[in-house]
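Hello,

Following up on my earlier ticket. Below are the two sequence lines again, exactly as submitted.
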Amino acid sequence: MDDRRSETFPLRRREIVLRLTRANDETLVISGLGSTAWDITSAGDRDLNFPLWGAMGGAISLGLGLALAQPQRRVLVITGDGETLMGMGSFATVAMQAPENLSICTFDNERYGETGMQSTHTAAKTDLAGVAAACGIATTGTVRTQDDFEAALPIILQAPGPVYHVIKVRAEKLDFVLPPKDGVHLKNRFRQALLGDGAIL
Amino acid sequence: MDWWTGIYEAIKQADVRQVAYVPDAGHAALIEACIADNGIRAIALTTEEEGVAVLAGAWLGGVRGALLMQSSGVGNCINMLSLAKTCQFPLPLFVTMRGQWHEFNPWQYPMGQTTGDTLNTAGVQTLTAVEPDDVGAMAAATLDHAFTGGGMSALLLHQRLAPVKTFGK
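Thanks for your patience. The regenerated structure is below:
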């Protein structure tokens, strides 16, 4: 295992997230806890972001429920490799439901960023795009370079889902850009923006 | 009239459109009814905790859901319940009990005997149906608590309601 290699990966997560989340204001964006929550917030805190602060392993499942509920809207899940590893069964659940509007990206820096940058299983042997493909997700890919990313971007944003991409990003310590922490607020502002004022209990 | 129809009628009445589940003998007929219903998206899970997150996503998108599981599945949900608790997502659970009544498999006792306490400790309100005639009204109350109060609410379905499983012995 080369657990230092991700320190030299060319792609930078804060640049990638800008391209993913600013392409379309209508996109419904879910993030996992930790670094990807700070990432989507660094691109601009918006009402149609739902960043998790916990519930590790739940981001993809949450995106599935949302995608099935809102079939006309693109749902983009952006999560980390550790979060993805904790909920790998959800790839099988997504494949069975096959929502065409669901796109999932794992920002894979091969580290547990919030706990001290320890190596994850992807630094050793695990190929998450391979896992997703074997679970039945028809469109998958692993993005390692800028050229890879430019080729994958239209697929991530527009191709019939479910689609899944691993985006190998540099292991780096970045500034925290924290979204609101109040879960009820995050839920209510999302529903109000998506469904209107009548959606608030 | 089978008791499970009380749950089916209650979820239809409550406008539930997503039913997430891990297959279970006690819920088998209800799951089949949900799969056959064009107004319900039946979502098979690999583990019950996925369902807690799926229903949170459904609610964000304006759709009501319910989660069906066996008592052993409650243990699989514990940390994910913090999502529903912290954000006040409605979470109606329908739990078929094991380890309670002529249980053949002792491996079901530990989770079955602590299911109610575990749910209560996690902040989930529980009702227990023992008699078939009580199931429908209790199912409606469970859904009402979840959707009108934004709460976590479970109906525990006593093992007396389910066929006794003997593994051919």
